[in-house]
Design goal:
Largest sheet: 12 strands, mixed
Low-confidence stretches: 415-452, 461-497, 499-505
Structural class: alpha/beta
Strand order of the largest sheet: 11-10-9-8-7-6-5-4-3-2-1-14
Distance between the termini: 45 Å
Oligomer: single chain
Strand content: 5-15%
Helix content: 40-55%
Number of helices: 18
Shape: globular
Length: 505
């Protein structure tokens, strides 16, 4: 007969043995975890010790606290997830975590988001993952590991074959390590999702986007890609679209907070006419305007039958473009989620989306607007719904696991562990996440039958075919056939190989 584990008592004894004072927040979480039944223990639990928990008094976890906690969890095979976001862990804490990862064989999810881990801490964690064979999801978001720290993770990706999702957003990485990561992912077959949001880029040549595109041509396992805040322009979008013509695995593409205009979206529209795998497209906080929205609506109305979610939040779209998107939804029955807040709503827009909602074509939990009427006129109010509203934060009250605010997890989640990672409550089983539905057949659904896509995929825009520069959208003028810098690629490969040799030694 199995003995029910007692994490809290183990923690109290460990604090006494190491001469460390108890952290009341850790003690509270462990006491709550001890209340789980045997079924939940058998399935595995996630300990949520997040420093931004507003529902209970929080004493943030320090490096010394983590040393004690790691000793408690050393043999806790039932703990498969650990959320330590928003605490005060430094490189010293990263050393304790690296030791734990080398010895642990059950942890599948680790969230170190928004701590104070730097380059040396990143090196320790990355090297620990050379040996670790169980961790599936790692979030390093917001730790300023820099370009050098990112290089250690690029080296790790050449060796590790179990990590499926890696979040390195807002880590102050630079051009060199982004190219190194893209190069490593060319050969890596285990990573299904990667977040490379907000690097520090000082060049206008978009070398990093070119290398990511080259990776997508050769990678057949990546399902989810986040390239938010990459200063991406239409040139970079075209490179990505050319690559995605040859890619049949990517389901979620995040291009939010870039500098994409209507010309870039015209190329995306051509891609959507041919692509049969992409399910989520996030274009929030760009500047596609009415013309861009019309390009998207044409592709969605007549050709594409696989895209399920589209976000065009804050894109300077007015009534003409928004009404076109609403008309596309009347034809395309597979497009179920659309987010439009932050654009210019006129009366026609309000009426169009009100009709979609009232007829049941668009459900309230699948959009970020709700109609209301004042003096006989229809208006739209904002709803706190989106693809990833709770990426950086969770609400102070109410349901934390709100699927409507994090719809991308329900649409194209890479695995159940990722859902638990973003939304998991303290000491809950890892299997409580919504499962991703199976792939949709091309051309399925009601409405008008999808037209056959145009011939072979060659996403040549007018300015590319003419062979002239494309500075008309505020971009630095250059020819469309500008080669990426071969010498930079060579330098990055040398750096990655050098790191690999160093860590192997």
């Amino acid at each position: 007969m199995s003995v029910r584990p007692d994490l809290h008592q183990h923690y109290v004894r460990a604090c006494q043995n190491l001469g460390q004072p108890e952290n009341p927040f850790i003690a509270h979480v462990l006491q709550e975890a001890d209340k789980n039944d045997k079924i939940r223990w058998a399935k595995g639990i996630t300990l949520k010790i997040a420093g931004n928990n507003h529902l209970v008094p929080v004493q943030r976890v320090t490096d010394d606290d983590l040393q004690v906690l790691a000793s408690v969890l050393h043999n806790a095979v039932f703990v498969t997830g650990l959320d330590l976001r928003c605490n005060v862990l430094t490189d010293a804490g990263a050393k304790h975590m690296a030791t734990f990862l080398q010895e642990n064989s059950t942890l599948q999810y680790l969230n170190l988001m928004l701590n104070d881990i730097g380059t040396s801490g990143a090196e320790l964690i990355a090297k620990a993952l050379h040996r670790n064979e169980t961790l599936v999801y790692l979030r390093m978001t917001g730790n300023k590991i820099g370009n050098k720290g990112g290089m250690f993770f690029a080296s790790m990706l050449q060796i590790n074959s179990t990590l499926e999702k890696l979040d390195l957003g807002d880590c102050d990485m630079g051009t060199q390590c982004l190219i190194a990561i893209a190069t490593a992912l060319t050969q890596n077959k285990s990573v299904k999702a990667i977040n490379l949001n907000r690097p520090l880029l000082y060049s206008q040549e978009e070398e990093t986007t070119v290398h990511v595109a080259l990776m997508l041509k050769n990678n057949s396992s990546l399902v989810e890609l986040h390239l938010c805040k990459h200063e991406m322009k239409n040139f970079g979008v075209e490179r990505l679209c050319e690559a995605l013509c040859e890619n049949s695995s990517l389901r979620y593409l995040d291009l939010s907070c870039n500098k994409i205009t209507r010309d870039g979206v015209k190329i995306l529209g051509e891609l959507l006419k041919r692509n049969q795998t992409l399910e989520i497209l996030d274009l929030s906080a760009n500047r596609i305007e009415d013309d861009g929205a019309i390009y998207l609506s044409d592709a969605l109305a007549l050709y594409n039958r696989t895209l399920r979610a589209l976000s065009v939040v804050s894109n300077n779209i007015s009534g003409k473009g928004l009404v076109a998107l609403s008309d596309a939804m009347k034809t395309n029955m597979e497009l179920s989620y659309i987010y439009i807040w932050g654009n210019k709503f006129d009366e026609a827009t309000c009426m169009a989306f009100s009709e979609l909602i009232q007829t049941g074509r668009l459900k309230l939990n699948c959009t970020d607007v709700e109609p209301y009427e004042v003096d006989g006129h229809v208006h739209l109010a904002e709803l706190s719904h989106g693809l990833k509203k709770h990426y950086y934060w969770t609400p102070r009250c109410g349901e934390v696991t709100n699927k409507d605010a994090n719809a991308s997890l329900a649409i194209a989640a890479v695995s159940e562990h990722f859902c638990r990672g973003l939304l998991g409550a303290a000491a809950e089983p890892m299997d409580g996440a919504p499962r991703a539905p199976g792939p949709l057949p091309h051309g399925s659904g009601g409405g008008r039958a999808a037209l056959a896509p145009p011939g072979p995929c060659s996403l040549q825009s007018g300015f590319q075919a003419a062979g002239r520069t494309h500075s008309g959208s505020g971009e630095t003028g250059r020819r469309m056939d500008t080669p990426y810098r071969a010498e930079m690629t060579e330098a990055v490969l040398i750096a990655v190989v050098g790191l690999k040799k160093e860590t192997s030694a």
